[in-house]
Amino acid sequence: MNAHINFPQRSGPSTFGSTLPTNTRPSDTTSLRMPRFFKRLFKFPQMDFEMAIWEMTALIIAPKKVFRKTKNTWHRPDPSFTYLLSFFLLLTSLAWSLAYADGVAKTIRITLVFIFGHFIGSSLVVSALAYFLVGRLLSGLPGRRRGLFGPPGDGEQLEFGYCFDVSIRAFFPLWVFLYVVQFLLMPVIAKDYWASLFFGNFLYLAAFGYYIIITFLGYNALPFLQHTELILTPFAVLVVVWFISLFGTNLPKHLAPVLWAGAALRKNV
């Protein structure tokens, strides 16, 4: 008589938009339970970089079109946007380093801080805060369990993966205004003139204003959240801070991205 082993069937939703069918073979269980985001992390041919470029363009001119449900999940298990924006940050870090850093060591430091500190690190922190605060305070379904990465079959759960999607897309305008435009205008907006102070500080108002608006649009797209307009509250505070800064605080001189990485602005800026 041949021995026969009955493998226990594992149940429960998977993460990042993948499902575990009931007829799954035991040998396939591990691979199917792995989040699709991580499975595609190094599969570059499967990444949709064209969609990522379209989203970056839309985030500036029509951000509302970016957030929509795809198949059975709001989260998109495609790291192409993260890779592409990280590459752009690499390029801008080299530009800031050539202009304001001395030596290879500081260049490497600025590059690492730009990508893993400013972008990835801050996005993870904001995603974690949004996952717990937005999911708890704005959910129209009290008592419902929130999926960490979210099963695709349940469209009424806040997914951590979706929170991360919103955060990295909201970071894109920050990159445009503070890492690109500010770098190009730095010789002008860092001067001791009120016009320089006004336009330099306006870049920060535009950058963080876009960040707040895109964050609001991201969560407002979820039909099971209520009172998402509360996310716009920091915008009023931002306007007040910007107005106060016009009385003598040149933000580019104190908040330029290269300063966050430990480099110093040259005196002739």
UniProtKB/TrEMBL annotation:
Primary site of residence: membrane
Keywords: Membrane, Transmembrane, Transmembrane helix
Annotated region described as Disordered, given as residue ranges: 1-28
Record-linked Pfam families: UNC-50 (PF05216)
UniProt entry tagged with the keyword Nucleotide-binding: no
Subcellular location(s) per record: Membrane
Gene Ontology cellular component terms for the protein in this record: Golgi membrane
Biased composition range(s): Polar residues: 8-28
InterPro entries the record matches: UNC-50
Membrane topology: Multi-pass membrane protein
Transmembrane segments annotated in the record for this chain: 81-100, 112-134, 170-190, 202-219, 231-251
The keyword Transmembrane helix is assigned to this record: yes
UniProt similarity note: Belongs to the unc-50 family.
Name of the protein: UNC-50
Organism field: Aulographum hederae CBS 113979
